Amino acid sequence: MRKEVEILVIGAGPAGLSAAIEAAKYGADVLVVDENDKPGGQLFKQIHKFFGSRRHKAGVRGVDIGTGLLKEVQDLGVEVMLNTVAYGIYPNGEGVALAVNGEEGRMVYPKKVIMATGAGENPLAFPGWTLPGVVGAGAIQTMINVHRVPVGKRVLMIGSGNVGLIVTYQLLQAGIEVAGIVEAAPQVGGYGVHSAKVRRAGVPMYTGHTVLEAVPNEDMTGVIGAVIAEVDEKFQPIKGTEQFVECDTIGIAVGLTPDIALPSMADVTFVNAGRLGSQVPMHDRNMETTKEGIYVAGDSSGVEEASSAIEEGKLAGIAAAEALGKVDAKVAKEAKAQVWDSLNQLRTGPFGAGRHDAKEKIIEEMEEWKVKNNAC
Hints:
FAD/NAD(P)-binding domain; FAD/NAD-bd_sf; globular; 2 domains; five-stranded parallel beta sheet; 9 helices; alpha/beta; 19 strands; oxidoreductase; oxidoreductase activity; seven-stranded mixed beta sheet
């Protein structure tokens, strides 16, 4: 079945929904596809309140932000196809291949494509890391916040970034004991607002430590604890500092890697994103890649947070609508300037400055690429 659409958005998370909303506001015909059975992405796992400024939804829970975005999408008449996997993209107008409900295949022929495919959790290999009971932090969030399923009775968390801290607090809210947080760095990695809540709850912080192994139960169907140890300045375990921590679940929160499978198929140029996570599609200030008409937004363009993903989605949506002639250049310029002002606010301070510099480096490299390749 041949289906034509002006803009195809791949991914119905915060970036994808925001892109769809902005483009649809200007009258673009938008189709959103997502492999999950529910739209909203990570927002529906985030039961905590956002912080920052009012324009960044301070004081609003992630799940409520997601609900609001969904309502906007529905009110604008955007078509959303769930349980739909975009498994192939063919540049130069040859279409995007979709698998619907795991069976039905169809081609979609969009004029513009916005890839908001998110990121995947990083694994951490140590003896016993494949045992039942060793779980990614995102999976923990899905179980306790979405499906209301307890992951265990006593959890040891590895990683003290924002994800590790937030999930730790959400475990406590679910009535699950937390044995501690293990962090190889000498200090906690996440925001003080998150770490303070965890510290006040009395959760032990094992900074300057690493996990040596997960200790299995007798029949190897789970874990009964973990052996941790202090590390030296080269992050090597210090002999004689080993200790056993009792737990029946080990959570892993050691960062995310951008999902770049589809951009790879689109033959875009990649660049090292530094602290934003491995290779990402090179893109300009409109979020457009080196392949005309293909945009990226959110974690697939460099891992940040949901607030930044929302703003990047807006940029891509406005730019795609402008390229289709749905909005004149002056109006689009003003709209994008407002979004960039919001993004720059998010990328200030001791934590945000590094993200700002990393993003600017990507954009600078894109400008150099354009000059080298005589691109507009």
